[in-house]
Structure formats: C-alpha cells, structure tokens
Amino acid sequence: MPDTGQISKGLDPAIINGLFALAGVIIGAAGAILKDIILRNLPIKLERVRIHDKDRIEAFKDLIVFVKDIQNSTFPAAEYKKDDFKRIMKTIYRDHILRNMPYYNKYIIERIEILEERYICLTSPDLIGEVDCTNFIEKELFLTVNEIDKEIKKILKSWE
Question: In whole angstroms, what is the distance from residue 115 CA to residue 123 CA?
C-alpha cells in the first residue's frame, strides 16, 4: 500500500520532469518539421517569382522596341506611315507583343487592341475598300502609340 505522505504530495517530480522533457522534444521536432516544409517550398516560389519578373521585363523590352519603331515611323512628318505601320505590325506584333499580353496592364492592352483592329482594316481584303483608316494613320496612330509610351514609363517608374 502506498505511503499516505506520497499521495498527498501529488505526482512524482521525476514524472513531471519527464513530461516536460517529452513536450520539449515534441515541440522541437514539430518546429524542425515546419521549418523543413517552409524552406523546401521557398526556393520554388522564389524561382517562380524570378522567372515571372524576367519574363515581364522581356515583355516590356519587346513592347518598348515596338512602340519606338512605330513612333519613329509615324511621327507627323513621316512619309510612309501606312506601309511602315503594316510592316511593324507584321514583323513585331505577332511574335513579340501578342504573346506577351498577360504581362501588360488593361490600359496598354486596350491601346494595343486598337492598333490590331486598324492593322486588320488595312490588311484584310474584305475591309480595305470599306473602312477608311486615313485619319487613324495620319493622326490617331501616333497619339495612341504615345499613350502606350507614357503608360510604359509610368509602369517602369513604379518598379523597384
């Protein structure tokens, strides 16, 4: 039969110390497991961010070249605006701008779509005689491209 003095004292101090040690081991192991899980996924997330940023930078580089080419070819005193616009749209737009649309904001996409619509009007055999794009080529094209250029500069200033 146990001694009445032991019953009144509560649990044996060795058991209490053992429980604290066991709790410490469990918490320490859980912390190590959580750290491993977090650190295992971190490089993957960082690499995704790096790839996205790299692709976004390349997309904007392509857009800047596209915009500057059109600006240089369609400024108010330029002679072959229509032909230069068609050439630039044919050579740069599909391969470099269209595939990068997810990286541009809504404002830029809307302006690019205007350029694409006018390009279709200028090159589609069904629309060439029906839609007059003279005003667009002579006035709106340069203004539209300048709007894109201003938006690009605003976006680039916000990058860190």
Answer: 12
In a domain, 113, yes or no: yes
Angle, in degrees to the nearest 10, between helices 106-123 and 141-158? 150
- When divided into structural domains, the chain yields a total of 1
pTM: 0.68
- Which burial class, exposed, middle or buried, applies to 86 when counting CB atoms under 10 A from its CB (0-12, 13-18, 19+)? middle
Q: Do the domain assignments include residue 42? A: no
Query: pLDDT, tens digit, for every residue of 5-62?
Result: 555 466 677 777 777 777 787 887 777 777 777 667 666 676 676 777 898 999 999 9
Domain range spanning residue 83?
A: 54-158
Q: Write the pLDDT tens digit of every residue in 86-137.
A: 999 999 988 899 999 999 999 999 999 999 988 988 888 676 666 677 888 8
Number of Cβ atoms within 10 Å of the Cβ of 107: 14
61 is a domain residue: yes
Whether 13 maps to a domain, the answer reads no
Both tokens assigned to 123: 């090159």
Terminal CA-to-CA distance of the chain, rounded, Å? 76
